Predict the structure.
Amino acid sequence: MTFRYLPRGVCSREILLDLSGDRINSVQVMGGCSGNLQGISRLVAGMKMDDAIAKLEGIRCGRKGTSCPDQIAQALKAAKARE
């Protein structure tokens, strides 16, 4: 399943998730800090969604109440809710 998510409160503009069951095949983030987001995307590839959510949710960027990693977690939670 491909899931599109529009992040809020961060520099990135769009998150695309490719999911198989409870596993993450790939994550693509448009906008944001390219190198960091490519690294995060590679690290979560193959991971269970719940494990990635547990690791990424709640991470903040500076004074913002969220971050791109937190928004990836929110995208995964939204994708789970659609199942």
